[in-house]
Design goal:
Helix content: 25-40%
Mean pLDDT: 95
Structural class: alpha/beta
Low-confidence stretches: none
Number of strands: 27
Number of helices: 28
Strand content: 15-25%
Distance between the termini: 82 Å
């Protein structure tokens, strides 16, 4: 019999236990161990059965147990202490507040952080993988630091899929309906926004999740008044076809801006986490046009407060929408903005891709943001090459895309044992501590550190056994059929971890290319190895699914199933167990296709050593002592040969260096050499890989400059933005007339440290001297007289010469011996440009 209506019934707690609900509804419990201990005390078995979800837990605890707790003085005392801890956390000044008080008043009032997914906890399954978990860690670290920030996303009624494997190892997707009333979410009463979807109005309600001090707002289209197709816009994460995707992204970007306004929030800074929410820039511009600005003026007013972070190093990973689809959904929108549809489309097109007619979301995001970044130093460099065509006259190294290397939220991912050790022996506030504090890891005894690592491995073994058993039982196997799972893995054996999205470039099956060599590693009598794999493939990624099937078919072989494991239904709980228990974290992407790869950071904070291709974050953080670098054969055009060469490097490292070092035991059975490397890893990586470092970088290098710039741009009815738009149009039109007429300099060899005078004459056409800057780029030159890393000197304007040309002069110092050179150029110059090469206009001598 089917219910006519269904709804959630929340538990009625005894008055003495009412703080439990408040604690459960703030997702700080997902990283605060005392709060998690409190819920374990309520009912340890139910806590595990509810997969660490306190909202579900409180709905399942029998009334008798609640009454017992209400009468337990010890529990009530701990409850009061935990609630007081939350109150202090929410109200006490933190890094951002104390920094503003002791140094200077920050111009930053509020950041809106937009992302299509947020990985806060496995109890709120609104994430698919790295992008979402990064977004969740960003919110958590912002909360810990007291940064004024809110998150904006979508609430997916089915979330991302749960993964099951068939008997032959093929991934099967299972979607289950989520009830927002049964999650740590609160409906924002009275808030409902509307967007236009090709002539169909779509309404959405807003849910609020409290992530410590930060609010996350999730838009939900499953509301009365929408058509069935409209209600399905937020049905699942990364589901449906291209049209479904554009409908979701319109709701996220345009609807997200409108939701913030309906909530009474006025962010200065809009941070777009990848291009999925990019339409927010168009909506902000449209509203300014409605307020009286032209579209060009509105764009100049939007740019200063926009931060765009790209997460993909490959063009195929970027959303692109066909022109006819864009016209259906944005034809009338362009009219509202006072521009033609072609002018609107131009924001998402590249002039260096003449045959490409699709609208590129990353290109629009880059054009509508004054500040842009990749997510690792190498990824920033790759992005500058990838998008160099947007700034055609600018040297690749100067393309205005910087980088902020990702970080991970340490309290979410670090094991209790390692946390306790670092708190006692390094510094109590070790998350975000400077390098000099992390250096105290040297004072930790080898045996003490080794025991903490062993406890993580022991817990991983217990977790894997339980997970495999439950998974097999759910597939219909009998208890006797799964009895073997009680003996899988060995808590004393060297353990390799590998867990991530199964995309082909990540090459999860690289070790299977030499199966006999792999078997020899696994079953070495004196130095055995065990491996645990986990991960999902996108439902439409059939090659990724085939990789999972190949690994699972290898894993279920009778003689291997105790040593080589694939864990299905990968989520944050599975990931946490792996990070905390692995000895080596294996990462085998094809360089440079890994944007960052934060899983290795989480493992490193738990004392696991990384063995990785020098890609993503590892390229900048590997120092030769804190892990191992797999040799990359990226110059090899034959991918099969490249994979064989790189697999050979992995095996060589494992066989000759990594495994022997782990089993080289001294007194007391402690592998001193291994622990030495773990200490080196903690000391060098600890200050670098945390999300607190990442968010501080964003605040100081991106958010605060953006906040100050947007305040200036929007003041006095956007007077500065309107002036900048007029200036930009005038300079772009006049730039063909700008020529370097002559360069004069001292002749002959120079002495090291000597200053050399340079004078540059410029024909400005219709522009004036204040419209441009003239620069000299100087430094050591290479074999072809190129200057690979020039210093930039801006010259001083000295007036007009007898020929009517503007003249600039200055001196640069010859800082290095050997071949030295310089060149000169002219660039546009305006006080409100984020960078001199922003317009992509450069005239070279």
């Amino acid at each position: 019999m089917r219910s006519l209506q269904s709804f959630s019934v929340r538990p009625a707690l005894p008055p003495e236990l009412s703080p439990l609900e408040r604690l459960a509804m703030n997702l700080r419990w997902s990283w605060d161990e005392p709060t998690r201990d409190l819920f374990r005390w309520v009912d340890k078995d139910a806590w595990e059965a509810m997969r660490h979800d306190p909202v579900r837990l409180l709905g399942q605890v029998p009334r008798l147990r609640l009454d017992q707790l209400a009468a337990d003085p010890g529990f009530l005392r701990y409850l009061q202490e935990t609630e007081a801890g939350l109150h202090r956390y929410l109200t006490a000044p933190r890094w951002f507040q104390t920094r503003a008080e002791t140094r200077r008043a920050s111009p930053l009032r509020l950041v809106a952080y937009f992302s299509p997914e947020f990985g806060i906890s496995e109890a709120l399954p609104q994430y698919s993988g790295g992008l979402g978990v990064l977004a969740g860690d960003h919110l958590k670290a912002s909360s810990d630091l007291g940064v004024p920030l809110v998150g904006v996303g979508l609430f997916y009624r089915s979330g991302y899929f749960s993964q099951q494997l068939t008997v032959d190892g093929m991934q099967q997707e299972r979607f289950s309906e989520l009830d927002p009333d049964a999650l740590a979410l609160t409906r924002c009463d009275g808030i409902r926004i509307s967007v236009d979807l090709a002539g169909e109005p779509l309404q959405a309600q807003v849910w609020q999740a409290d992530v410590g001090r930060v609010q996350l707002y999730l838009l939900d289209s499953d509301v009365d008044g929408n058509t069935p197709e409209g209600r399905a816009v937020t049905d699942r994460l990364y589901g449906g076809d291209t049209e479904h995707r554009i409908r979701q992204e319109i709701l996220l970007g345009i609807g997200g801006v409108r939701a913030l306004q309906a909530l009474g929030l006025d962010p200065q800074v809009f941070h777009t986490n990848e291009g999925h929410a990019g339409f927010l820039g168009l909506e902000r511009a449209r509203q300014l046009v409605a307020g009286g600005l032209s579209f060009r003026e509105a764009v100049e007013a939007v740019r200063p407060g926009s931060v765009f972070t790209t997460h993909t190093p490959v063009p195929a990973g970027i959303d692109r929408f066909p022109e006819e689809l864009m016209e259906r959904y944005f034809g009338s929108f362009a009219t509202e903005c006072g521009v033609t549809f072609d002018e609107l489309m131009a924001l998402g097109r590249r002039d260096d891709e003449p045959g490409e007619t699709r609208f590129n979301m990353a290109v629009m995001g880059l054009r509508l943001a004054a500040r842009r970044n990749g997510v690792a130093a190498l990824h920033g460099a790759v992005s500058r090459v990838m998008f160099a065509g947007l700034w055609p006259d600018v040297p690749t190294e100067e393309v205005p895309i910087g980088s902020v290397t990702n970080g991970v939220h340490a309290p979410t991912w670090v094991s209790p044992e390692v946390d306790d050790l670092l708190t006692r022996r390094v510094v109590p506030e070790w998350d975000g501590a400077p390098a000099e504090d992390w250096a105290r890891i040297e004072e930790v005894g080898d045996d003490e550190l080794w025991r903490a690592l062993q406890q993580g491995r022991e817990r991983l073994v217990t977790f894997v056994r339980s997970h495999l058993r439950d998974s097999r039982l759910a597939q219909g196997f009998s208890a006797s059929d799964v009895a073997w799972t009680n003996g899988v893995l060995d808590p004393t054996v060297f353990t390799v971890g590998f867990a991530r999205r199964f995309a082909t470039y990540k090459r999860a099956t690289l070790l299977l290319s030499q199966p006999e060599r792999l078997r020899a590693l696994l079953f070495n009598t004196d130095r055995p190895v065990q491996m645990v794999f986990a991960g999902k493939a996108h439902p439409a990624d059939h090659p990724g699914k085939a990789m999972i099937q190949r690994i699972q078919q290898f894993a279920i072989q009778h003689e291997l199933r105790h040593r080589f494991i694939f864990l299905d239904d990968y989520d944050m709980a599975v990931a946490r167990a792996l990070y905390q228990g692995a000895d080596i974290w294996l990462n085998t992407p094809r360089r440079p296709q890994e944007a960052c790869g934060t899983s290795g950071m989480k493992a490193a904070l738990n004392g696991a050593l990384n063995c990785s291709i020098l890609d993503g974050w590892w390229d900048e953080c590997f120092d030769g002592r804190n892990g191992w670098a797999i040799t990359s054969a990226e110059d090899e055009p034959d991918l099969d040969r490249r994979d064989r060469l790189e697999a050979e490097s992995v095996f060589e490292l494992l066989e000759s260096q990594i495994v022997p070092l782990f089993y080289d035991r001294g007194a007391g059975g402690v592998p001193r050499g291994w622990v030495r490397r773990v200490k080196d890893a903690f000391a060098s990586l600890g200050p670098q890989v945390t999300a607190s470092r990442m968010v501080r970088d964003y605040v100081q290098e991106y958010y605060e400059p953006a906040a100050a710039a947007t305040d200036v741009a929007l003041a006095d009815h956007a007077a500065r933005a309107r002036e900048l738009a007029a200036w930009r149009s005038r300079v772009v039109a006049a730039w063909p007339g700008v020529k370097v007429a002559g360069v004069e300099s001292d002749g002959g060899p120079a002495v090291l440290g000597e200053e050399r005078h340079v004078a540059v004459a410029v024909d400005l056409g219709s522009l004036g001297p204040t419209d441009v800057a003239v620069q000299v780029l100087h430094g050591p030159v290479g074999a072809a007289d190129e200057i690979p890393q020039p210093d930039v000197l801006t010259l001083t304007h000295l007036g007009i010469d007898d020929a009517g040309r503007a003249r600039w002069e200055g001196q640069f110092r010859c800082a290095k011996a050997g071949r030295y050179g310089f060149t000169a150029r002219v660039v546009p110059d305006h006080q409100d440009l984020a960078t001199p090469v922003e317009l992509g206009l450069v005239t070279w001598a």
